[in-house]
Amino acid sequence: MPLPPIDRETAELETLDEIRDWHSGIVDALVDQRATVQHAVRAGTVVASRFIGMTEDDVEAYYDAQRRELDRLTALNLVASAEATVKVDYFRRVGEKLKDPLARAYREG
Fold this sequence. Notes:
single chain, mainly alpha, 3 helices, rod-shaped
């Protein structure tokens, strides 16, 4: 099934560095929030409603699951970014009828 061409003028491709920086920022925020919640649970002070009744082990498990999900989403984002880059390159080479060997191979394939 042919894919519609990508509008290179409006495509908002994320670079791998941007994805890495986003991931690092979210990890930092997750670590900070985890520490805050753990401290509140130990001290018996107010926590967000989703943490009420949780033990320290429950909080650990919650944040471990959050980190795993973040890592999965980041991996998906990396793959999607790489795929988008290849697609944009493909449509540019084919659409502009470039003469390089890869463009020729794309058109023949």
